[in-house]
Write a structure and sequence with these properties.
This protein is an alpha/beta fold and 229 residues long. Helix content is 35%, strand content 27%. The chain folds into two domains: 2-113 and 205-225, NAD(P)-binding Rossmann-like Domain (Rossmann fold); 116-201, Dihydrodipicolinate Reductase, domain 2. The strands form two sheets. The chain has a seven-stranded parallel beta sheet, with helices on both faces. Helix 3 runs parallel beside helix 4 and helix 5 packs parallel to helix 6.
Length: 229
């Protein structure tokens, strides 16, 4: 059975991930990493102890950048495949992770958004951009989200540019209490507006994509970016 450990186990997403792993039938929970140890939940404060106790095949890294870079590099160095949910990684950091993964013949995944619906939203937006000359992105998140624009919005813009032209669309960021994760992509042409929108109302919406990623990373080599990779 696939053994999966969670970095950032006491965060909001980390709590959801730990519960999902404990309930899954084809993967098992191999412990957590956090700033505070919780022995009853197999949560420790240092990576060496996590490796020794849990012997994970995959590390689900739900920490924040830049700490996620060191954690994911350490995972690869110990033969553990990282699945990274953090955003903010630079191209140079991605290239470095890919080099290490390739050298060790291991897979790694950087997933800005684990939502299946968000992945489809980006794919639909990439297709629609071929037909609409005017595009703008509005991303809306809870007021505790540190980065702006979001990783999903930036990836959406990159995919639109790759499919339709050199100019990246503007991104507008909203941080507000009461929101979780929401994005609209607006496409305009004379006399017509197309809106593609996705809403995540609970963190449980990320669980199917999260489990899909930890399974998939076992069969890839090098760094793959995005859940649909």
């Amino acid at each position: 059975m696939l053994r999966v450990a969670v970095a950032g186990a006491l965060g909001r997403m980390g709590r959801v991930a730990c519960s999902a792993l404990k309930e899954a039938t084809d993967v098992s929970y191999a412990g957590g990493l956090a700033r505070t140890a919780v022995p009853d939940e197999q949560i420790v404060t240092d990576f060496d102890t996590l490796l020794r106790n849990g012997k994970p095949d995959v590390l689900l890294d739900l920490t924040t950048h830049p700490g996620s870079v060191e954690i994911s590099m350490s995972a690869l160095a110990h033969g553990v495949r990282p699945v990274i949910g953090a955003t903010g990684w630079t191209p140079a950091e991605c290239e470095a992770l890919d080099r290490v993964a390739m050298k060790r013949n291991l897979g790694a995944m950087l997933v800005p958004n684990f939502s299946i619906g968000a992945i489809l939203m980006m794919r639909f937006a990439e297709e629609a951009a071929k037909y609409f000359p005017s595009v703008e992105i509005i991303e809306m998140h809870h007021d505790q989200k540190k980065d702006a624009p979001s990783g999903t919005a930036k990836l959406t813009a990159e995919r639109i540019t790759a499919g339709a032209g050199p100019a990246q669309p503007p991104i507008h960021s909203v941080r507000m209490r009461g929101l979780l994760a929401h994005q609209e992509v607006l496409f305009g042409i004379d006399g017509e507006l197309l809106t593609i929108r996705h809403d995540s109302f609970s963190r449980e919406s990320y669980v199917p994509g999260m489990l899909a990623a930890v399974r998939a990373v076992m069969s890839v080599r090098g760094l793959q970016v995005g859940l649909d990779a």
